[in-house]
Amino acid sequence: xxxxxxTKLVGVQHPIVQGGMQWVGRAELVAAVANAGALGFxxxxxxxxxxxxxxxIARCRDLTDKPFGVNLTILPAIKPPPYAEYRAAIIESGxxxxxxxxxxxxxxxxxxxxxxxxxxxxxxxxxxxxxAERMGVDAISIDGFECAxxxxxxxxxxxxxxxxxxxxxxxxxxxxxxxxDARGLVAALALGADGINMGTRFMATRESPIHQLIKEKIVxxxxxxxxxxxxxxxxxxxxxxxAVSTKVVAMEKEGAKFEDIRELVAGARGKMVYAxxxxxxxxxxxxxxxxxIQDIPTCAELVSRIVREAExxxxxxxxxxxxxxxxxxxx
Length: 331
Description:
By secondary structure, the chain is α/β, with parallel strands linked by helices. Helix content is 43%, strand content 14%. Helix 8 crosses helix 14.
């Protein structure tokens, strides 16, 4: 068993996290992750109202008695969701760990911590991680350029970002972006993280609430099958490469503004991808890690395999490379 500062902090068996994913972080996936001994997060804003979130938390509790959390992403919007009401639903439901993401979460961090809720804040840079640490969060999830969704604007890959953050962050830290297997977990621990966060990998599991054809598409795709949209608007997002993303990138190169592409990138269209299995229906998130995903296991199979193989890598492969003076003399 691999025990880290993070597993002790949140009370889970394995240093593996399934972070918030729009339209994907639902009770059936989160409960399966929790039952596997890892930490799953329900995505709050996937639920249409705070009342729906309360029901989804209750549904998850019917499926597991293990710890799980809720993701609350705070993003600028013309008509922002009722964040305070979603926050209240999380607190009143007795959730003990929350993943926050987005801008200036201080108000939410203060309120959550006042009610004994542990806060894991997702960041894409060392400076933002240090800012979150000063705000009083309990742990950091540091997101490298390889990730699905928003990688920030610094283009710093995990191999640099994780140890750079570990050099300065004192609280537990989860590594995000590009993780799918035991090799990634061992590498993240070696780089100074206390565990890994996986999104795209958990999308391609039996319990993931998305269409089977999309799971099969993730398995079929290689590491080149993503595109960066909203690059010209400094709101970069890594998505699965398809007819829509290619059109958006081409329009951006010709000077298109958000209003010009709004209909193409509408969330409702992306949601339909997961419902219909048509991967060209709209924009949907996936990371470069698609190139490392070769099957669609249950969450229990996936988590146990990663932990088992990680222990073997540490005990056999890495330890076997250490040559003592006595052994060297004997050989």
